[in-house]
User: Fold this.
Amino acid sequence: MDKSSSQRLPPLKRNWWLKHRFFKLYMLREATVLPLVFFTLCLLAGMVALLQGAESWQGWIAFMGSPIVLLLNLVALAASLFHAATFFVLFPRVMPIRIAGHSLPDNAIVAGQWAGVVAVALLFFWLLGRV
Amino acid sequence: MSISKHGTQHKQAFDEPLWWGLFSAGGVCFAVLLPAVILFIAVLLPLGLLPAEALSYERASTLLFSVLGFLFVGAVVCLPLFHAAHRLRHGMFDISVGNDATNKKLMYGGAALLSILALGLVVAGMLG
Amino acid sequence: MNIQTKHISVKRYLPDSSADPYWQQYDLPVDDSTSMLDALNHIKEQLDSTLSYRWSCRMAICGSCGVMVNGIPKLGCKTFLRDYEGDIRIEPLAHFPVQRDLVVDMEIFLEHLAAVKPYLIDDNPVKAYDPRAPETYQQSPEQLARYKQFANCINCGLCYSACPQFGLNPEFLGPAALTLAHRYNLDSRDHGKKQRMAELNRHDGVWSCTFVGFCSKVCPKHVDPAAAVNQGKVEAAKHTLIALFKG
Assistant:
């Protein structure tokens, strides 16, 4: 029997994800990359400014402080945390870690990744936060 | 029941493991590094909540235009860009925008171009 | 026993008499133990003998009574009316062509299952008889534990109705088929991984999955197909790397 002999439905309409809360959360997870791209472009602008000189660098910091940019970057911060919350729970399911025949509990792997987030934040505080 | 299929349907997706690998690595960077990076550089710095010398022009240049700065840009700009490209490509398929073959070229191509630009800026700073 | 009356709306499709599907309401007595399947049986026996639906075992083993309940894929026998207040809408499983009422055409699902060769493949199945040889297919508990969770699939197809990627692209092999492929790839007795990887490592194989994860939410046997599919991506990536180095 040929594969094409079975019936095919037309693909879902593009609003399929609006029909269920679970799919809306999925789309929100996928959309976390939009503010991420905005922040990345800001960062690229900052690198160009840094290369141009001290005046441009101060100008870039002022640009980063304008209300709209600050607001969008706060959204990016929230998006990165939401992404982390959704991404960390996937890790033990995609790569279950087995030590001596026993699988490491999922909670331990998720907690370990959050510890990583905190460690990076502490590293930044050590690098930039001290007077 | 024998299933006969055309050769094209059996085509191996040799590129997909690469995109998925970059997506995964970028996802880890986005989740572990980006919260702190955004908090310090895009929130605390412009609000003036960091010590004045923390990211002065001189200190920022020293930090960024170095081997560590190069690695920092790779983990904070390049990999997350490929992560974003992968999700945007699949998101466009999800909402039936464009055609996947074109979207792939646009998204991964864009991520690659911006990555080269970012790493190039660091190298230019190190040389200059 | 607390008996009350509940309303159920069933999406009817009778291609012989009406070209379009329509909703039909039924009122029926339910108690705490009434399942959706009990309700459908009650309708069929007492109210309306024209209703068509599939069922067999009544205990979540056969996997034939899958329907959408308020838009979520469910096994009729494992879903109880006591958990629903107000509107109860029963529809045929999503993403499959409807043949009649709640009966869908699952041919495409069976094709995708067959494509991944979900059975033990032996290198050399015919061996000369050797009385001292160990019994065939010996397996330790540790080897069993590697794939056991993924072996609980009952082929009910709920995960296909939950998967938007299958809804967007019916050529996508889909959660159950990819999970079963992974289950046999993990089996110490199997030697068919290479054949299956050729199916998995295609655009319509593991790479169409975006880890929506709803398949694992609706799975009545807690198989976690999303985990299996994404572990399949790791395997497909390894397979590709090895293929590149071997040329």
Q: What stands out?
A: The mean pLDDT of chain A is 93. The two ends of chain A are 75 Å apart (CA to CA). Strands of chain A lie at 98-99, 102-103.
